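Re: the request from the purification team.
They wanted to know what the chain is likely to look like in 3D before they choose a buffer screen. I agreed to run a prediction and write the result into the notebook, where they can find it.
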Amino acid sequence: MHFPLCCIAVCAKSTSHGVLDRPKLAENYTEDTWLKLRDAVGAIQNSTSIKYNLEELYQAVENLCSYKVSPTLYKQLRQVCEDHVQAQIHQFREYPFLCSLDNLSFLKRMNRCWQDHCRQTIMIRSIFLFLDRTYVLQNSLLPSIWDTGLELFRTHIVSDSAVQKRTVEGILEQIELERNGETVDRSLLRSLLGMLSDLQVYKDSFEERFLTETNRLYAAEGQHLMQERDVPEYLHHVARRLEEENDRIVSYLDQSTQKRLISCVEKQLLEEHMTAILQKGLSTLLDENRVTELTLLYQLFSKVKGGLPTLLQFWRDYIKSFGGEIVCTPEKDKDMVQDLLDFKDKMDNVAQSCFARNESFINAMKEAFETFINKRPNKPAELIAKYVDSKLRAGNKEATEEELERILDKIMIIFRFIHGKDVFEAFYKKDLAKRLLVGKSASVDAEKSMLSKLKHECGAAFTSKLEGMFKDMELSKDIMIQFKQYMQNQSEPSNIELTVNILTMGYWPSYTPMEVHLPTEMVKLQEVFKLFYLGKHSGRKLQWQPTLGHAVLKAEFKEGKKELQVSLFQTLVLLMFNEGEEFSMEEIRAATGIEEGELKRTLQSLACGKARVLNKNPRGKDVEDGDRFNFNNDFKHKLFRIKINQIQMKETPGDLKKRIESLIDRDYMERDKETPNQYHYVA
């Protein structure tokens, strides 16, 4: 309990003329008055009733001071108080010391003695207030009556080595009991520690011992619990300990202890175990997305020296390791891009929600992503391009336009980390070409949005050819409108409706020229278009690309009529069965001129896939030399128009190899000196 320096004053009527006009006092007046005052002080000290009126006692002090006996009065009062305080020491020196209960009883007695002393000093000061405010105030070297009381208690009670030792040890014992979960009398501790503070011995007698014990306790506790508990449990324990110690400061410790006390707890429970905590638990916290514990980890590490830089390094290493596994595990290629997007979302959330949007952590994450995503040259670029294709292709019903836009934005963040952006361009161009040429783009707006993002990220030079592809498609539409009008004026109209896309060679992916044997009517129609086009655009050269062609065929089965949406190669094969019932693979190759590998894939799609419009003999999933094929008249399907997908080559398309050679020639890439099949992007 802290007492103010002045608490009460007894009201007394006093006039200056009363002192001046008073007749001369008898010689024994001073002594009689002092005896009366001493008797009153003794009554206060012994907690008995005072015989005299307090106003009368106050007036007596004022009268004594007026007659120049203030020095004597001050000395006599001090002596009486000192005699009383000295008599109190014996009850503490002789107090038994058998168990902790004795210690608690000792503390309670000490507290009663202190409380009584403070109460008595306040009462005495109220009687001698005139002395305190005149004589004492005018003599700067003299302590006030309150300060005299503190000085006497400090000198004769608390400064006694045995008493002080037992008092401090008793307080420390109570704090240790509380730290171990027991309930203690906090008001008792608050009063005793307030006593030490008021007596100005708190720091030397208590605080140093207290901090030494605290350091010892938490050093042992940290070592023990790091072995026994998992990291989430340990972090919550540390937070609870810090909260408890802060609560002690509010409840009974002196405020001046706070900084050193909290620093001690943080050092022993956190700073000494930072690396161990992160090695043992950071990966688990991040793997399991333990947002609460990650937030707590960041908050705790931000309190200790070197905490955040250490956490930052482990965070960076985790991202590199986890991301490297996504990128460098071929078995996971199918899900690589989605896994990367999910991982980036997860790490973004951690940085935003748990790490207080700390710029250092956000930058470290970007650096880590850029490092691991380029550990495996080319493949991430290829798969990102294919992922974009899957999202922009017609038939993708996974997302609304708004959701698709968000997905593309996220893709661009991943794309930003890739060094080999030309490799991405090669695959993106090939897939874009396919979407445009077969009319399988989900949304022109989405396509142009993606193009705009690439242009913003990589510059106009990067997207100029891609933009050229869109211009070609728009111009081709205008040309076909004119061509249809042109055909209406022909004397011999064709049964085939021809649509031609005019592709500027420099804009589009390079396609391997392939000569195939087209039906006469198709060849004738090609010549008509060529005549029409070159008539409008003299000096240009047309080169037909059969690998990009597709058609819709009308077919009749037992079940009824169907329309088959097929590639030009599939068209050439199926048209043969208008002329005969069964053909060998060799006969089909000779008739169509389709290259062997391409022909096998074409026949496989027609006879071995989901829509088997041809029968293969012998049966099997693969097409071999000597296999024979006939029209499947029993073919059934619930749809009227059926798309028969062409089987794609399993190996990476040839245009990538050409693109890589081009990049090497232009010093953008180089072959690995030890492993020829590996390439490095030159920054």
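For the purification team: The first helix runs from residue 16 to 21.
Please add any questions underneath this entry.
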